[in-house]
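Homework help board

Subject: predicted structure for assignment chain

Our instructor gave us this sequence and asked us to write out the predicted structure in token form, then describe one feature. I got the tokens but I'm not sure how to describe them. Can anyone check?
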Amino acid sequence: MTHAGVEAIRAFLAEANLLSGPLEDQRAAMDAAAAGAPPPEGVGVEAVTLAGRPAEWLVPADADRDAAVLYFHGGGYCSGSLDSHRGIAGRIARAAGVPVVSLGYRLAPEDPYPAAVEDAVAAYRALFDAGLDPSRLAVAGDSAGGGLTVATLVTLRSEGTPLPAAAVCLSPWVDLTQSAPSYEEVGAGDPMVSKQELDLLAAAYLGATDPRDPTASPLFADLTGLPPLRIEVGGLEVLRDDAVRLAERASAAGVAVELVEWPDLIHVFQAFPGELLPEADRSIGGIGSWLARHVARRAS
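My token output:
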């Protein structure tokens, strides 16, 4: 059954041509699409520097400042920003009742792999060093930010840094070989992302790095010992199998995994307003409740 909201998005993207052209134009278009959009009602914004990178706290009214969610934006490691993802990060903060700190990590091709991973790991360590208890911390991200979420967890575990209580991955890009069956099965039916585009972004991000490197493509990492994961994905996206295979591999490694598939929806549909895609609000509400349960203060 055709989803009216998805078809409206498909038509808009085709007319606006936001997902093609020079990288600088794509970056500007992504930010412009969010220009003037305030954070959700009841969520304050505090600009900060975190581990040497620009960041901002999105803080719901009366939120417990002893808990936090560290958020990594999407954009194929080459675009995306605090501006472009303020809306989705703020909505997650409001739904969870927990402050979200969104990180402006370095982007390729100016700063290729492993710059994004280094920034993400340093940001988490900065929160830990500031006294936040890992049992009250979570990490989350969408698309490339979802892959960065898993890469960060893998790196922290390998270094012996205490891991957060939970992690959320929205439409995660975790296999930079672009070899999953869903690329053929969905193909041009995905209005948001294409194999051709992801191949270009992967080349810009990886340089000479093997695309199967476990912190570039964390689908190929040892996932043993990671905290509980919630993974959400749309059925109409070429990255569907990245999410499904990540869930399968994590579960096989003994990780508690909750995979939520939305059959008629598209890549990071949660970024769109609920008036257009009511499922976006339902998804974010579920994510917020799940995060709140995992980082809630435990009775002593």
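Reply (TA_rk): Your tokens look well-formed. For the description, you could write something like this. The domain at 4-295 is CATH 3.40.50.1820 (Rossmann fold). That's the kind of observation they're looking for.
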